[in-house]
Specification:
There is one protein chain. The protein has about 300 residues and is of the alpha/beta class. It has one domain (about 5-310): 3-Layer(aba) Sandwich (Rossmann fold), CATH 3.40.50. It is built from 12 helices and 8 strands. Strands 1, 2, 3, 4, 5, 6, 7 and 8 form an 8-stranded mixed β-sheet that branches. The relative contact order is 0.17. S-adenosylmethionine binds near residues 4 and 23.
Length: about 300
């Protein structure tokens, strides 16, 4: 049996409190569309009688959306990191949690209508995981993965989802080949010499040896024929505005497992380089005031995919 990736489990056991504070929340707009695609909602209501397994639930960043949409006793959260689950239980004391991984779930056969995975599938995107997810899903159960990803751009649009940007994102997504490079191309197509681009490049210099969403390899096993799931049926991209305080930018990147795993000396070097890039690239147009406090504007991309179990 395979085991959960050690960098993931070690780092997330250490950083769960900062992770919970500095990582991004998930777009409610995309979550709603995602739940409709998973047959867990219609346009007018959420089917909270459907049983959901949230795998790789972490501290509950996506769980929050499910709870706000009404899930409670029909939601089960699983993660191999006891640290992450400690924070999840503090955030959502009434949600059932289990320590477990995609390779061995402490759950009965054919017991869930849907499995959802937020910001996690890239850690275990293999056939053994698909087989285990197939086992716990009911016949024709659905499987969905959702991610946030960093995007940068020059124009400054604040506060609300901008229709122009959304349109631009949709057009770009439609014009790109449907390949594993798509999210990467999408973000780089609107990338400039922005603070977000430059600081992201510095942090990404460290992520080469760990499975990451932006590398796109998570798509491979889903594209090969297998006995467990259909190929990807629905795929949605969304871009939305967000803001971060300048002093939180290092902490945001430090929640990445591959940055958590660096020595203190290397972390300090990265901090200096990030500050140099911020001094050089932040412009007045990037600055926004929210409740009297200064933030830097940035764009976040969100991406969701859904598949259906072949179990009859
Ligand atoms: C980036 S965090 C995402 C957490 C949370 N879903 C969120 O969106 O913030 C990735 C999570 O995947 C979990 N993970 C790593 N390998 C796993 C596996 N094989 N099966 C299930 N979860 C795994 C980690 O422990 C970690 O909590």
């Amino acid at each position: 049996m395979s085991k959960a990736h050690t960098t993931a489990v070690k780092s997330f056991n250490l950083n769960h409190s900062t992770y919970d504070k500095y990582r991004l929340s998930f777009s409610k707009e995309l979550t709603k569309k995602f739940l409709v695609d998973l047959k867990l909602a219609s346009e007018s209501e959420y089917h909270t009688d459907k049983k959901i397994l949230e795998l790789a639930a972490g501290t509950g960043k996506f769980t929050r959306n499910l709870v706000e949409f009404g899930w409670g006793e029909n939601l089960v959260a699983v993660d191999p990191s006891s640290g992450m689950l400690t924070t999840l239980k503090k955030n959502f004391p009434s949600i059932k949690t289990y320590e477990g991984s995609s390779y061995e779930l402490p759950l009965p056969d054919s017991s869930f209508d849907s499995v959802v995975i937020a910001q996690g599938w890239h850690w275990f995107s293999d056939r053994a995981s698909l087989k285990e997810l197939y086992r716990v899903l009911k016949p024709n159960g659905t499987l969905g993965m959702i991610w946030n990803f960093d995007v940068a751009r020059k124009e400054s649009l604040v506060d609300t989802l901008s229709p122009e940007l959304l349109q631009k994102g949709k057009e770009l997504a439609a014009s790109l080949p449907n390949s594993q490079e798509k999210p990467y191309l999408l973000s780089h197509a609107i990338l400039g010499d922005t603070w977000a681009a430059k600081t992201g490049d510095l942090a990404y210099g460290y992520d080469v040896n760990v499975p990451q969403y932006r590398h796109g390899n998570w798509r491979n096993v889903l594209s090969e024929h297998n006995d467990y799931f259909t190929s990807i049926e629905k795929e949605t991209f969304l871009l939305h505005d967000a803001a971060i305080k300048r002093e939180d930018i290092y902490l945001y990147w430090e929640t990445r497992s591959y940055i958590t795993a660096l020595s203190q000396n290397e972390k300090d070097k990265l901090k200096v380089k990030l500050n140099e890039a911020l001094d050089k690239y932040v412009t007045d147009d990037d600055k926004v005031l929210i409740n009297g406090e200064e933030y830097l504007h940035r764009i976040i991309g969100a991406h969701a995919i859904t598949l259906t179990s072949k179990k009859q």
